[in-house]
Design a protein that fits this description.
Elements: H1 11-23, H2 40-43, H3 50-64, E1 69-78, E2 81-89, E3 95-103
Helix pairs in contact: 1-3
Length: 104
């Protein structure tokens, strides 16, 4: 950004940013679309269930693009933080992924 200009993104960068936004939004939290996001109650619990957390990530991906298929998924708890790492690909061959942390 330069001189107050707004930087616009598109393509794979926009796709990655959209996925990141959805997985960081608690379902029902955004007033413009209460269906967007994931259920943080599944994640922010003392002993999160791996399959339930994985399902929430898949649901988030499908909110962005119905053709996403999860390629890899891992999670670990370090102290009171749940760390999730995933990658996915859609029908167009676009890949997204990342590492996300949730405080428990």
């Amino acid at each position: 950004m330069k001189n107050g200009d707004i930087s616009m993104i598109d393509g794979n960068d926009l796709l990655r940013q959209t996925v990141e936004k959805v997985i960081s939004t608690n379902n029902g939290e955004w007033f413009l679309n209460e269906d967007e996001g994931i259920d943080f109650r599944v994640i922010l619990t003392k002993s999160p269930d791996r399959d339930a957390v994985r399902d929430e990530i898949v649901d988030a991906l499908l909110q962005v693009d119905e053709t996403f298929v999860l390629q890899s998924f891992s999670m670990q708890i370090v102290e009171r933080t749940l760390k999730i790492k995933f990658s996915a690909v859609n029908d167009d061959g676009e890949e997204v992924g990342g590492e996300t942390e949730y405080g428990t």
